[in-house]
Design goal:
The protein is mainly alpha-helical and about 170 residues long. The protein has one domain. A two-stranded parallel sheet has the order 1-2. The longest helix is centred in the middle third of the chain and has 25 residues. The N and C termini lie close together (about 10 Å). The mean pLDDT is about 90.
Length: about 170
């Protein structure tokens, strides 16, 4: 378990972000912001931190639900993520390997967890801002979760069968 995956994490959001980046195995590329992307990649990565999710494809699918139900965003900004060249390339590669059936299997495997996430979003005090305010980076993750009423998934709530594919992350690598 990574430090930011603990509900009462003492790291700042910036430290949690570094912990997240450090969790990438050498075989995985970290996508950093560019002048073209602005803070969009960082903003997305901060959702992994605040909602306590790792870099696996399964948890990326779970994150979609946290973002849609538990975040405040502008559709244009959120949808521009999929238009970034590095994300388009990754999506094309995943689609080629998994196909439509693979994606359906992925979402089917995590559907029970997604329902738990939706339930948790209804209990939040306020939605997480997808476009992260700069001052949040210096705040403790536990404090940010408290302000927003975010209760991340407990370990036992991650009850799904991980999707096996060539880019699967071995949990020992994270």
């Amino acid at each position: 378990m990574l430090e930011y995956q603990k509900q009462d994490c003492d790291l700042t959001l910036a430290q949690g972000l570094q912990c997240y980046y450090d969790s990438f195995p050498e075989s995985k590329e970290v996508f950093y912001d560019t002048p073209e992307s602005g803070t969009l990649l960082r903003d997305h990565d901060c959702t992994h931190i605040i909602f306590g999710l790792d870099i696996s494809l399964d948890q990326e699918a779970i994150l979609d639900t946290w973002v849609l139900w538990g975040s405040k965003f502008k559709w244009g900004y959120l949808l521009s993520y999929a238009k970034l060249p590095q994300i388009k390339k990754l999506t094309k590669s995943l689609t080629k390997e998994l196909g439509i059936m693979g994606f359906l299997r992925l979402y089917w495997n995590v559907i029970a967890v997604k329902r738990k996430v939706i339930y948790k979003t209804f209990k939040m005090k306020k939605k997480w801002p997808f476009k992260v305010p700069e001052e949040y980076l210096n705040m403790k993750i536990a404090d940010l979760r408290d302000v927003h009423g975010i209760r991340i998934l407990e370990k036992e709530e991650h009850n799904y069968s991980p999707l096996e594919w060539t880019g699967s992350i071995n949990k020992r690598e994270i």
